[in-house]
Design a protein that fits this description.
InterPro entries: AB_hydrolase_fold, Dienelactn_hydro, FrsA_esterase
Radius of gyration: 19 Å
CATH superfamily: Alpha/Beta hydrolase fold, catalytic domain
Pfam families: DLH (PF01738)
Structural class: alpha/beta
CATH class: Alpha Beta
Strand content: 15-25%
Largest sheet: 8 strands, mixed
Helix content: 25-40%
Protein name: Dienelactone hydrolase family protein
Number of domains: 1
CATH topology: Rossmann fold
Distance between the termini: 19 Å
Keywords: Hydrolase, Signal
GO molecular function: hydrolase activity
Length: about 270
Amino acid sequence: MRHCLLGLLMAASVTANAAVQTQEIPYTAADGTKMIGYYAYDDAIEGKRPGIVVVHEWWGLNDYAKQRARDLAELGYSALAIDMYGEGRNTEHPKDAMSFMQAALKDADAAKGRFNAGLDLLKEQAQTDTDKLGAVGYCFGGKVVLDMARQGVPLDGVVSFHGALATETRAAPGSVKARVLVEHGAEDSMISADDVAALNVEMVKAGADYQFVSLPGAKHGFTNPGADAHQKNGLDVAYQKAADERSWRDMQRFFEDTFGPSTPARAQ
């Protein structure tokens, strides 16, 4: 009886101490740029689990991107918020953000190299099931993950949240290997109706496994509780709780369908 009680107390202690673990990990992109990744996983889960790359908004690798990595870890994923600007650079100023974004996107091959460097880092983590990989992106990051799908990067699924939809190079038939989910604000003034229509035509012609969700009343930045603070800079952005929660549920179902009911069991 005493041994049974001791075992129960030890199990309770393990459960109580289990938590999402985080770590900043330096890495280097193919172009030599020094990057910083923010890795998160739940140590109460045993074994390997699907890996998700998180790509930040145009603000850079900030607290919001890191929070989304922790949120994904809580769902049972191995999550890495990657750095597309270098040295973990981030800003609160729109002019700086625009400059960082334009620099990161001016060379499509370099952008792909930076994404792949982050993907490789995620695959190196002991908790990651390298046969089950996905990516999510926000704003600028939404464009990045869509572009990676267009270019046939080996991912099982990508989710774009209020992402830029236009591209310099459209997907060729058969090039999109990943399943694609786009969560778009119906009132997003930063994305034109022509861009929405062009994406839909592009994905159909490419033969992609593709879903597009238009969220009523939602503006650009609808997932980020800090979006409203940027209205003072003249940006037409706003957080919308209903759209944030609905799009997150959509993402969960999407990855469950993509990976199967694969959230590993938590340690008892």
